[in-house]
Structure formats: structure tokens, C-alpha cells
Amino acid sequence: MKKKLFSKKIVGVVLVAGALVLAMGIYQVWYLAKAHSTFENYFAFRGCTQLLEKTANYGTCKTASGETVKIVLFEGKWYLEGDLPCGFLCF
């Protein structure tokens, strides 16, 4: 009887851990989709503190560390220039 109870506990722990991992994965996908959806969201996501220039297709900002970064619009989503999802195939 004790072995059955022990194995049920293990199955329960595995199921709870799997559900937590799944929930964290779904949250991460949602969080990244939201970050890439607008310039303002990506500006905040990248830790920008000062807007230097903005057009309809790109913007330049300064981060808290003083680094200047360029954010570009690519296929309806905002990305850090040089960090596009197509890699070297963008050229």
C-alpha cells in the first residue's frame, strides 16, 4: 500500500512540475510577443531611457548603461538592429 501512495506522489509532483514549466513557457512567449509588438514596448524591453530619434521604421535610443541602440521594424515587429530573426538571410 505504501508503494502505491509513494508512486502517486511522484506522479503528482511530476505533473505539477510539468504544468509549471508549461505555464512559464507560455508566459515567456506572450511576454516576447508583447515586447516586439510596438516600438514603445520594445523601447522599454531593451531598457532604453532616452529617445534620440524615431521614424516610422526605426528608432535610436540610449540605454541606462549609456549604450546607443537602434530599433528597427521588420515584418511588423520591432527588433534590435542586427538581431533580426532571419539571421544572415536578411541581406
Explained architecture:
- With 91 residues, this protein is an alpha+beta fold.
- It has one domain.
- 47% of the residues lie in helices and 26% in strands.
- It has a four-stranded antiparallel sheet with strand order 1-2-3-4.
- A hairpin with a 3-residue loop joins strand 1 and strand 2.
- The chain starts with a helix and ends in an 11-residue tail after the last strand.
- The model has no long low-confidence stretch (mean pLDDT 89).
Give the radius of gyration: 21 Å
The end-to-end distance, rounded to whole angstroms, is 65 Å
DSSP E strands, number: 4
Number of domains: 1
Order of helices and strands: HHEEEE
**Roughly what is the average pLDDT, rounded to an integer?**
89
> Given the helix and strand composition, which structural class is it?
alpha+beta
Based on Cα principal axes, name the global outline.
elongated
The number of helices is: 2
Residues in helix, %: 40-55%
β-strand percent reads 25-35%
Uncertain regions: pLDDT < 50 for 5+ in a row? none
Main sheet overview: 4 strands, antiparallel
> What order do the strands of the largest sheet run in, or round the barrel if closed?
1-2-3-4
List the helices and strands and how they pair.
Layout: H1 2-37, H2 39-45, E1 48-54, E2 58-63, E3 68-74, E4 77-80
Antiparallel strand pairs: 1-2, 2-3, 3-4
